[in-house]
Amino acid sequence: MSVSIDPVGVPAAVPEAAGRFLAEILGVGTVEPVGPDGDMFNLSVGQPVLTFVAAPVRDGHHIAFRVDEPLSPPQLIVGNSLPTPVGGRGLSGFVARAVDHELERDALARYLGDLNAEFGPVAAELVEAYNALWP
Fold first, then answer.
1. Is the CB of residue 94 less than 8 Å from the CB of residue 19?
2. Which one, of 6, 3, 35, lies nearest residue 16 by Cα?
3. Taking CA atoms, which of 9, 102, 117, 131 is between 20 and 30 Å from 19?
4. pLDDT tens string 77-110
5. Which residue, 69, 68, 87, is CA-closest to 77?
6. pLDDT digits (tens, 9 = 90+) for 3-19
7. Is-contact 6 49, C-beta < 8 A?
8. What is the rounded CA–CA span in Å between residue 28 and residue 130?
9. End-to-end CA distance of the chain
């Protein structure tokens, strides 16, 4: 008796984007809608096929790939102001924007921390008054 797994279901908040992201990283395959409603997306990576489905991603999953050459340099630099692209195919624009956003938030958090250290925290009453002004 022969047994094979096809497809492997991969939960994703945005299945099509997740499939395209992995296809871009690996530099293989195309993402095709499948299922009666076209709400699942297949990525053929040899065998088996990965089917990305809309489902809550709670604990993550481990899927390993065996590749015959490195996919990207060991040093990962991200953002739109990259000195060099990551790998031959570059970095997904969506991911670059998301990482830029997080780096900006980290810089803002450090700046606010510095202001708190220098001047002390903003009075709770003042924060409440300003919050009440916003819808």
1. no
2. 35
3. 102
4. 344 444 444 444 455 566 667 777 787 888 888 8
5. 87
6. 777 788 888 888 898 88
7. yes
8. 51
9. 64
